[in-house]
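User: Please predict the structure of the protein below. I'd like the answer in structure-token form so I can feed it into my own downstream comparison script.

Assistant: Understood. Taking the following sequence of 149 residues as input:
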Amino acid sequence: MNQSEHSPAPDVTKTYTNGEVTVVWKPAVCIHSKMCWTQLAEVFNPRIRPWVNMDGATTQRIVEQVDRCPSKALSYYRNEEPIKPDDIQAESIVEPLPNGPLLVYGNLRVKDASGHETQKNKVTAFCRCGGSSNKPYCDGTHVKNGFVG
């Protein structure tokens, strides 16, 4: 079992491919909504390693499920045309999820409490409950502590 899948470093990125599409997983961004594995367990199964089985469904079905990831910890690119973070164009939108994180859509530069800057693209989930151990990002603690807001 890969230790980084349990307590990932902030910049860890895992990739899984079926030759047609590559799924990118950023564990430090994951808010543990469980949508991936409850809606497509044939591909996403946290009980086995590797937890992503790209042979479990069609490329189209995998892409549809990845698009449902609320934190965008899961993303993908088509292998024939990989994207670079600088190529992502997005309008800046802020959306508070009921009883969950604050989602910010767009290209961001986030500065943490120690002054370290990180480039974020697509969607970034920020903690609103105050309980995250990965501040300023959401780590799913709002579910455990019963956050309402």
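That's the full token string. The longest helix spans residues 59-66.
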